[in-house]
Design a protein that fits this description.
Two copies of one chain form a homodimer.
Chain A lengths: L5 H4 L2 H4 L25 H5 L7 H10 E4 L4 E4 L5 E4 L1 H11 L6 H4 L1 E2 L7 E2 L5 E9 L1 H6 L7 H23 L2 E7 L4 E10 L1 E7 L2 H4 L3 H4 L11 E7 L2 E2 L7 E2 L9 E6 L10 H30 L3 H28 L2 H19 L2 H7 L2 H21 L6 H15 L16 H8 L7 H18 L5 H7 L4 H11 L5 H17 L3 H43 L12 E6 L3 E3 L2 E3 L2 E3 H10 L10 H5 L9 E6 L11 E3 L4 E9 L17 E5 H11 L3 H8 L2
Parallel strand pairs in A: 12-20
Antiparallel strand pairs in A: 1-2, 1-6, 2-3, 3-10, 4-9, 5-9, 6-8, 7-8, 9-10, 10-11, 13-14, 15-16, 17-18, 18-21, 19-20, 20-21
Helix pairs in contact in A: 8-22, 11-12, 11-15, 11-18, 15-22, 16-21, 16-22, 18-20, 19-22, 25-26
Chain lengths: ~700, ~700
């Protein structure tokens, strides 16, 4: 299964270390996550196919982004959206109760009235894209120092976003492509009334569990359907993908529109070393400890298991993904290739005196900045309250009331006008909060910080004083009322006075920590970000100068188009086939004696005779994708749906750094399996007919 | 699929470089290919099982060895022997014609009278084992130099074998275990009237072809049945294995009696380096070129394809095996482990002055000898007539008439009295010889020698003179009559005079080459073998001194007992199941759209409805096996057949050097698949009943 966008799953965990640099790359056949303003037209000529602007527009407008991480697509004119079960599973958990566990049982309805509203799911459609590079750059004056320049740039971006929001009412984000090479204003139509229509049992969707996750051959029905509403009615989705149950033939050209989360293909070599030697080990250690806490917690009973399962799933997924990515960084051949590419690029720069003068010092600047960052990165990482949603709310509330009264341009990132709707959508989510889970996670996270920081660290002193992590966590979670949405609303509405007057222990703690956190963020902005941003931009400009624009930017969780062919690959001494079939699903189940992750919902056995066992289940293509692409449709030249991306194979994980056409494969649910399952396993005839257009 | 014994498949190709040394090893759980005089009783205590002497005797006497390479077992009281299709395939090809291609169609009969006699298949049963170490050693006197000692040792071995043959009429072989640590006289009952009873289509037996060869999960029906006759009647095989169609459960203890070909687990580190840097690259290059020749040849037509296929199969199998083994030698961790083991062993020796004096110099001696060998090994390898069976016959005939008149002890290896019956069985085989194939292979092989040796090399001068490899090969094969068995017999009977008088061009060439070949062999004996043999023996003695005899010797294509549990393993990011099912066979076929190596014989589709698709097909266990074990039965504690070894997984290939319990797996056909196939695919009810004992 494909990890979702790290950036989003681990929230600020990654933000901290995401610094942007670039090296030269040359795009190989089938490589690339292309922006819709710069599609791979040249590359597609080899396939004898030229996408028209109409084709591109239709594909873009039929594609959606899930703000929680993940992609999807409209598959009927009535707002029906298809994505992965694993993109939907967070919502499934939130609408489940001790009595009704939809994660286990699946969710099905034949009546529109029974479609289940999701507590906090936001879906976006990319309406327009405008190049604002010149405007962003012109905000910076020649006489500014680096810190002032960074501030000016951020202020200008906030201004563009606010203007656009005010003018259009659309979600408006300025995104940096090519690590500062270009800035674009992306406007999204956003939907927040999203209702669940169909989800199979997790056991069918996530068949093979953590073991089979990120692997192939696979047999997963990793699909869910939502319907997007506006004004309590299904939206009219004129732009949607038609269904093709036959699927794609071997070697057929296919496309994947979706929102890949992040890649590091343009990082400098020194950045990769930092990732390999510092960042990945740090995060993997953190994940392991958090998993220990959750496993201990879920032993308390079936309801605890239900509460913990989705988090465990996300962490296991992340761990397997990061381990696979790290294996790329530890691969001497891959690193040697990256080193050579960078050396060649720098040589070309050095040979041109003008370029050398303009861009030549960027790499050394980055190297020095990374060295500086290493000295403090671990401390910055562990000076942070992990694990408790309510503690996170408290921190946001404390900041909100201070930041929002300021002029937009002077606020901290995350608190600009254009960002507030989403912030509030999450902050005021009615999704349930489990106090025992919060306490267990918070205690565990504080223990980690205690273990990793010095005992006299300022953060430890403020949070723990002389008490133990368990004591503090119990006191904080017992004492807080922040699981009450109304209280959160009241504090936001009451502003700084209300927050200062609050004696809620999590609010008090957030207030006490805020000065230290601000100082730390300021240090990072002034010492790291303000240096890295212009240095990365230099390299981006150098790359354009040397290679032109026949390239794609690193992934940014914005809409991209990947292309490739349906094709198996060499695996473990033999060949992995381009597709699997239902025969294989039953084989895998019986080959493990139907145990544990390899058991199947009873309906599969009861209705086996009704199934055509030769139905394709999953298939692979060379399309270049990564986490965030989960739920992307796979479409053919006619823009018909032939599949549903849900994973990359394990060989694709080093694809974060280098794409390898030989073994890198995108794994998708075959369109035929989805309709076969709807008809003959789940008897959801109406839904099947709706997507089949019958 | 498991390679067969290299030693035998590549005949003298490997003999050349097989030098015997040893380092310390400690046997891990489930590791070991144990001799029947020293079974792993201690290790089996952990499983709560102690094999009785009766159990061991019965297992030994029900096990058979195929002299062509491979193992098998009696599975009925009427001489019925089970082995692999790939052990039988050479005979299948030999009894096939342009009209009847049993390799493709399979071979089935319900009447004993129709069982098809094989042209040159010899089957052995190990009747007794006697320790003759003292006798072999006492033949060497203190005042002998190394060359004399080697000669005396060989003479004594030949004498023991001849005495035994004369006394008992049994095939009698003195084998060196632990690289000279022990010498044993093994006596075999041998059978040469062996008739084919059943073989499925190659497409069912070798399902997945070269791609799936050596991999798992697998779906092969790699089985064949022979019946052993004496005096034109089936032998009474009192010792046979009973059938258990249920097979073994996951984690059940199982055993594999069989004849593993060769392992290098006791090699010194310097020997491994020699293999890695010299021997494997040399042989892989040779195989690649030979495959090129065969692929070119088989394009001439379907009959040429039929003629070449079994050789291609053997070479592809060997190539994949050697590549996998080489990957072990290139694995830094594995090599580091071997180095550490050797260092620890040598340290223990060094700490004991007596041991150090006795054994301490052996490693340096071996290192120096290997250095010497490297200087000439490539030349020795390519000064050799490859490719033509008839050229091989000519060389044997020329030597035979010179050697056999000598006293037994003075003859070259291969021409001792005890070896003559097998030599004649092969030399007088009525199996067909294809002149066009002989010519193509001979021309190709001579071209290789021309490319690899200097143009003024003595061998090149004698063989080619001023003519091209093609011209010489055409002249030799057109001119020879050695495909006539009677001529070969006449030359042997006519002795030196007849051979000297012969103007058959292959005999003439063999005569011209013989002095050079003898000189080369003499150099090797006197400079390499005579030094390595005592040095290896020293290390063997040192190992006994340090570690006692709780260890097993390297494989020697003699009967061994392996044990282990039925168990999956971690694979490619997930788990490989302990078994596969018929569902999976149909999945794999359809997942490749039934193309090429993944097509199935039509009967599988026609009779699919009659099959229980949940029938287990193949399964894996931790049993420690290697090439030569092909066709070994897998038995349970009751000595009932639960499966049939046919391969090792690709992760097991470095097992030639180190056994890895985590991933090393023996791959077997499940007993249930064999009976299900006999009943419902092939309708061989009588055969099924015979093995089921019904």
């Amino acid at each position: 299964m494909f990890k979702r966008n790290h950036h989003l799953i681990f929230s600020n965990l990654f933000l901290l270390l995401l610094i942007c640099t670039s090296i030269s790359i040359i795009a190989f056949a089938d490589e690339g996550m292309w922006t819709f303003d710069n599609p791979p037209t040249e590359q597609l000529k080899e396939y004898g196919f030229t996408p028209t602007q109409e084709w591109l527009d239709q594909v873009r407008l039929a594609s959606v982004r899930f703000m929680d991480g993940g992609s999807g697509s409209f598959v009927s004119p009535n707002g029906l959206v298809m994505t992965n079960h694993h993109v939907a599973v967070g919502q499934l958990q939130k609408i489940s109760t001790e009595e009704k566990n939809y994660v286990n049982t699946g969710f099905f309805t034949s009546k529109m009235a029974d479609e289940h509203k999701c507590p906090d799911l936001e879906v976006n459609v990319l309406i327009s894209m405008d190049d604002v590079t010149q405007r962003v750059r012109s905000a910076m004056q020649e006489d500014m120092d680096e810190v002032e320049a960074l501030k000016a740039r951020k202020a200008e971006i906030a201004k563009i976003e606010k203007e656009s929001l005010d003018e259009t009412g659309l979600r408006s984000n300025v995104i940096s492509l090519y690590h500062g090479g270009e800035y674009w204003l992306y406007r999204y139509k956003k939907y927040t009334d999203v209702r669940l229509v169909f989800a199979p049992e997790r056991q069918a969707a996530y068949y093979g569990g953590d073991f089979d996750n990120f692997t192939y051959p696979r047999y997963d029905l990793d699909v869910a359907f939502f319907r997007v509403y506006e004004n309590d009615k299904p939206v009219e989705s004129k732009n949607y993908f038609k269904w093709n149950s036959k699927g794609a033939a071997e070697d057929e050209l296919v496309f994947v529109p979706g929102n890949p989360g992040s890649t590091d293909r343009l990082y400098t070599y020194s950045r990769l070393e930092f990732q390999r030697d510092f960042n990945y080990p740090l995060i993997l250690k953190y994940i392991d400890r958090r998993l220990q806490i959750l496993h201990k917690y879920m032993k308390k009973g079936p309801e605890q298991e239900r509460r913990a399962l989705v988090q465990i799933f996300g962490l296991e997924n992340g761990k397997k993904a990061l381990t696979g990515e790290l294996s790329g960084l530890l691969d001497e051949n891959l690193m040697a290739k990256r080193k050579t590419d960078e050396e060649n690029f720098r040589k070309l720069i050095a040979e041109n005196p003008e370029w050398e003068k303009e861009y030549g010092d960027a790499w050394d600047t980055i190297d020095k900045t990374i060295e500086k960052n290493v000295t403090i990165a671990k401390e910055r990482f562990y000076r942070r309250i992990f694990g408790s949603k309510m503690a996170g709310f408290a921190q946001i509330i404390v900041r909100y009331v201070t930041e929002v009264p300021k002029p937009d341009a002077e606020r901290l990132d995350g608190y600009h006008d254009s960002e507030l709707p989403q912030l509030k959508f999450r902050l005021f989510s009615p999704a349930p909060i489990y106090r025992d889970l919060e306490e267990a996670l918070l205690a565990g996270a504080l223990q980690m910080s205690l273990d990793e920081l010095t005992p006299d660290d300022e953060f430890i002193k403020i949070v723990l004083g002389n008490r133990t992590p368990e004591e503090i966590a119990r006191a904080l979670i017992n004492g807080t009322q922040l699981d009450d949405v109304d209280l959160r609303k009241k504090l936001i509405e009451g502003g700084e006075d209300a927050v200062n007057a609050s004696s809620d222990p999590l609010i008090v703690l957030a207030r006490n920590l805020d000065p230290m956190m601000r100082a730390s963020e300021k240090w990072y902005r002034e010492n790291i970000e303000s240096v890295l941003t212009p240095a990365s931009e230099k390299i981006a400009k150098a790359r354009f100068a040397v290679y032109g624009k026949d390239m794609y930017p690193d992934a940014t969780f914005t809409l991209r188009l990947a292309y490739g062919t349906v094709k198996g690959y060499p695996m473990n001494g033999t060949k992995a086939p381009y597709k699997t079939t239902l025969y294989g699903l039953f084989d895998r189940s019986l080959s493990f004696d139907q145990k544990d992750d390899y058991s199947l919902p009873q309906r599969f056995w009861d209705r086996q005779k009704k199934l055509d066992l030769s139905t394709p289940v999953n298939f692979v293509s060379t399309c270049d994708i990564i986490g965030g692409n989960s739920g992307s449709p796979v479409i053919n030249k006619k823009a018909e749906i032939v599949g549903l991306i849900f994973d990359g194979n394990i060989e694709s994980l080093p694809g974060r750094f280098v794409y390898d056409e030989i073994k890198n494969r995108a794994v998708a649910v075959h369109s035929a399996y989805i309709t076969e399952a709807l008809h003959n396993l789940y008897k959801c005839k109406n839904l099947a007919k709706e997507i089949e257009g019958k």
